[in-house]
Amino acid sequence: MKRFLVQILRGFKNPILIFFCLNALCYLTLFRVLIVAFPFRFWGYRCGIPYAETLRTPIRPARLPFIISAVYFVSRYVPWTSLCLDRALSAAFMLKRYGVSSTLYIGIAKENESWKAHAWLRVGDKMVMGYSDTQPFSAVKTIACIA
Predict the structure, then answer these.
(1) Domain that holds residue 113
(2) Per-residue pLDDT reduced to its tens digit, 67-98
(3) At 117, which helix (H) or strand (E)?
């Protein structure tokens, strides 16, 4: 934890990023506890509208780069392993708090006789978190996080 705080204070030129990093730390902690302690059916319906998507119009909110970089930065320094679902949910709720709608995708792929799951986030027409072209995941659930 000490290393995390030293990195935050030393690494940022913009003081607003410190606020976003503290927000991201709170959301990552909350969602990690929810994911580990409770099944998805108990808390998943509060994330947004299931099986719906937001519009794919070009949108570039001013706070989007701050939120995405803060979530990625904090997820590297938390004492637990931060997975894609933690990061995507944290970013979706931070964006929702600032009035930006997003779509959370949860997908699966089969790799060498085993199944892998992945989560990614889209804002407008841009994939902002967790999306990769290298592995084709099939989206099995979408959640529209309407602001």
Answers:
(1) 2-145
(2) 998 999 889 888 898 889 999 999 999 999 98
(3) strand 114-123
